[in-house]
Amino acid sequence: MRRSMLSLSVLTAAALVGACTQATAPTWTFPPPGAAAPPVTSAAPAPSGSPGTAAGAIEVTAFDLGFTPSAIEVAAPGRYAVTLKNTGAAPHDLTFADGTTTGTVKGGASATVDVQVPAAGLAFLCSIPGHSAAGMMGTVSVKGSTAGGDSHGGPAPDTGAVKPDPAAPKYTLHDATAPKLLDGTTHDIDLVIEEKLMTVGQTTEGGFVQAVWTFNGTVPGPAIRVHLGDKIRIHLKNPATSKLPHSVDFHASQVAWNDEMTSINPGEEKLYEWTADYAGVWMYHCGTAPALHHIANGMYGMVIVEPKDGLRVVDHEFALVQSEWYLGPQGQPTDLAKASTGNPAPDFVVFNGVANQYLDNPMKVDTGKKVRIFVLDAGPNIDSSFHIVGTIFNTVIKEGIRLSPDNEGHFGSQAVDLSPAQGAIIEFTTPEDGLYPVVTHAFNFVGRGALGAVQAGDGDPLK
Questions:
Q1: Number of Cα atoms under 13 Å in the Cβ half of residue 266
Q2: CA 306 to CA 312: how far, in whole Å?
Q3: Strands 316-325 and 370-379, sheet pairing
Q4: Which of 89, 271, 366, 416: CA 20 to 30 A from 313?
Q5: Strand 56-63 relative to strand 78-86: parallel, antiparallel, unpaired?
Q6: Sheet holding 224-227, edge to edge
């Protein structure tokens, strides 16, 4: 039930995501509106079973704007009774590549049609103008075939030569809860380099594992939260088992680049001391050349420096770091050549290291309560337009500029623009039970993993 509700709540994100990855097997015998006619392939095999007998039943739910499921697998070719249930507000249809269609189905209604599924599989879409381009496309494949698709109603990332690995381990959920303020005024913190394998994204076909470089074994590294004026002593350690030299650069510090920020080789460690002289949300990262590769391969994190009198008390706090993955081969580091292009096209754009993890595991809050999110764009290349569908930010502190809830004129904020290495503090309340999609409003990247959800109450606004 939660997945169904989530599908309903991401309608805004799905509507603007972009064109789907084209399925490999199906054939259009006519060009429906919004779809190009692929080359003609071989004719479908004869139906299984006797005339008038369906091989099985398929149910597809349409929401605004997507299908769930959009990748359907059947055991064998044959004639299937396909039911379209429209839970959205807009009318939709289900049109197959052979011309079979349910006809237009209004919101809240359903329709059933018999469809012959060949061995090669069959594509479907909503033929209402603009709906297929917004993500309302899918496939029915026969077990053992390769027809593709994804399960969220939006386009899957095109990862090119890097194919999902069915044997990849499930990703590890990164807890989005913001860290507590460290006690005292002087803090000794160990940052230990760890080069490890990590699943950075998953599809229904498998996962993507990269040989990442990390601080303390996580991507992003640990979030550090201190008070203005605190002294921080970072003990950077590069184990002898590492393959590379590494370093760290704290943007919240004022130190000489050729002193604390110099690289250390495997088996070495160093002390990096600094004082938190300015409040804000700050980035830290490995600066070893090429710094682009070390950041792109996972070596970044967040520092939160609170003002002397602290921040006002809220009910829920989260910390989100937006970043990009430029996939290398399975089990290898990210691709520096991809990350270095002047027109970067990341395979995944993510929050806290893993594509879509907060879509699968929404961040839960109490309805109507005060929520604060510390957000950082670690890049290394792509800007963020941080937005939470269904909310208005009543407080924004971005790079030292503050929007307060009691401002003259009662102005609010709909999105926070962040370039790589910029951070912000945003606050809002959720007006009712439901799901509130978390995105970058650069919607060409939402389908590449930059999509999560805040769940208020039980997530169901209709109960």
A1: 8
A2: 10
A3: parallel
A4: 416
A5: parallel
A6: 224-227, 300-306, 280-285, 249-250
Instruction: Report residue 387 CA to chain centroid gap.
Output: 13
The mean pLDDT of the chain is: 86
Residue 186: enclosing H or E segment and its boundaries? strand 186-203
- Termini Cα distance of the chain: 13
With 0-12 CB in 10 A as exposed, 13-18 as middle and 19+ as buried, what is 285?
buried
* Neighbouring C-beta atoms of residue 421, cutoff 10 Å: 18
pLDDT tens digits for range 286-325:
999 999 999 999 999 999 999 999 999 999 999 999 999 9
In whole angstroms, what is the distance from residue 216 CA to residue 190 CA? 8
For residue 12, give both structure tokens.
């805004």
**What is each CA distance from 122 to 77, 99, 116, 141, 262, in whole angstroms?**
10, 11, 9, 6, 57
CA 447 – CA 439 distance, rounded (Å): 10
Global model pTM greater than 0.70: yes
Q: Tokens 């809002």 correspond to what residue?
A: 428
Q: How far is CA 102 from the centre of its chain?
A: 33
